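Lecture 7 notes: from sequence to structure.
We start with the chain below.
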Amino acid sequence: MLSYFAIFFAKVLEVSLATVRMVLITRGEKFWGSLIGFAEVVIWLYLIGSIISNVIEDPIKVVFYSLGFSLGNYVGAIIEERLALGLITLNIIASREQGDAIAAMLREKQVGVTTIDGEGKIEHKKMLIVHLKRKRKNEIVSLIEESSYNCVVSINDTKVVYGGYGLRK
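Predicted structure tokens for the same chain:
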């Protein structure tokens, strides 16, 4: 029974590491991604060795391996969300008056904001473009939501931003 749980937890760890590794590499952190990849492969080889050796006589190992894979994806996604590595871009569309007020509110929080005049179906609009570290996403989105301004906010992952206020690469 202990071997089943060892397989399960090792697979959870391996897949969680794989998730974090992929995020690190896509965010440009090649060194850390490679280092995690090394640990991931060591775990994977150990698991394959213990699974393949007698999987026909003990098919329950496949079930624990598969359950570990499933939970590893879930745990990896949670870890990645908590690490909040990288950058995001917020596009905020509001009326001109509210757009100016939102821009001022964000600038008070040391957030760089670029504003662009636009035109909506009914009225003139203000579009705000904000580049942030992902760690600040919840703080800034909550600030906008709590302001009760009527605006549209879209959030996109951003790979790299060169220059700008508060962000240096």
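Points to note: The chain is about 55% helix and 20% strand. The chain has two domains: 2-83, 87-158.
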